[in-house]
Structure formats: C-alpha cells, structure tokens
Amino acid sequence: EAELYREIRIQMRAKDLLESSVAPIDTTNCRREPQARTATKTKQERLGFLQDTSFSFKPRINPTIPDFEGLYWAFQREAVRRREIKEATRNKPFKLRTSNLRGRQRQANDKIKVRRLNTSDSQQLSKVSVQKSHSLTGLSSLSSNTLPVHITDATRKRESAIRYSQDNKNEGDKEGTYWLEKQKKKCQAIQKSVNSRAKALDPHKSLEETHKEKLKQNWQNMRERTKEYRKELEEMQLRVKNRPYLFEQVTK
C-alpha cells in the first residue's frame, strides 16, 4: 500500500509541474541592440587595416650587426691622433742679487766676525750643540750671493735648553745603569745565600748524591750475587765430582 501511495503522489506531482510549466524564450526572432551593432561596425572600420596584408610602404632593414668593440677602439685611436700635445713649462735659472747691495754686504761681514768669535767659545759644547753651531757657521760662511743669517736670542736659549736636556738625559742614563748593576749584584748575593741556607736546612739529599749512592748500592748487590753464584756453582761441581758412577750404584 505504501508503494502504491508513493506512485500516485509522484504522478500527481508530475501532472502539476507539467501544467505550471512555461515554454522557453525563442531567441531566433530577437534582434541585437542598434548601439552594439554600430560600435562593432566602427571598430571594424578603424581596425580593418590590420587585416590587410598588402601594404604599400615597406621599410628597409639592415640585417648586419656593427662591431661596437672595433668602432670604440677606432674612435680611441682617432682621439689620440687628434690630441694636441703641449710642451711642459721649463723654469729658467735666475740669480738673487739682493746680497750684492753695499749695506747688506757690510752687515753680513759684521755678523760673520761675531759668529767666528762665538764659535771659538762654543767648542766645549755637546754633540748636538756642536752640530748646530757648525750648521749656523756654515750658513754664515756662504758666498756673498746668499742672504745673511742672524743668530737671535731665541736660538741661543734653544741651544742652551737642548744642551741642558742632553746633560740631564746622560746623567739619568748613568744613574739607571748604575742602579741596575747594583740591583743585579744584590739579587745574586741574595740568591746565593738562599741556596746555601736551603741546602743546609733541607733533610733530603740532592739528586746527584742519591744517584751515586744508588750506583754504589747496586754495584755491591751485584757483587754479592756474583759471589753467591760462584759459591753455589763450586758446591754443585763438588757434588757432581763426588757422586759415584752408575755401575757403582748398581753393585751396591
């Protein structure tokens, strides 16, 4: 019965759907919108030349590839060839004639005399001061074509300060070397006394002494073992000598 009711309901449902159904829209008689047709036509007119393959203008194409490397080096060679080479400027020798004036010559001669007197007094200076005085006198004893040189108070003070600093440095070096030698001797004396006292208070013997004792003890032990071996060997030989022969043992 349930199956029968189910089939009846299916048939009734199909009948209702068939009655309520509508036929589909017929698209054959429909026309496109006039605006869409106009746009399509305009597009075809504007882009119609792309479809045409028979063009009147055909550009010429150069299939060869230029040698850029060769062109670059050719340009460089041409630039070097066209470059203008200018000669270097050369200085001409000249002579300074200011020292030939009468007033300057007189001043230079007076200063040379003063420097000669000063050099006789500065012979007992240190190496640095001697070198500087020689350099100054050398400058003063140049030819008349050179400019005169004047020793100022600042130069003298600088020389004296250098001399004083050199003397202080030499004295400091001497004191340092003397102190180092004294300290070295003191350290050696302290080390010697410490070693002697440590040796006196140390109950252990030194390695050299123990080595000698060990050698002596080993030598004595070896000597005793040798004596024992010889004694045992003599006893063995004596027993073998006093042993009766085999036939004597059989007869007994």
TrEMBL record:
- Family (UniProt): Belongs to the FAM161 family.
Disordered: region residues: 119-144, 195-222
Task: Tell me if DNA repair is a UniProt keyword of this record.
Answer: no
Pfam families xref list: FAM161A_B
Question: What would be one Gene Ontology cellular-component term for the protein?
Answer: cilium
Basic and acidic residues biased stretches? 199-222
Protein name, UniProt field: F161B protein
Q: Name one GO biological process term.
A: cilium organization
Annotated Low complexity bias: 120-144
**UniProt keyword list:** Coiled coil
Positions of transmembrane segments: none
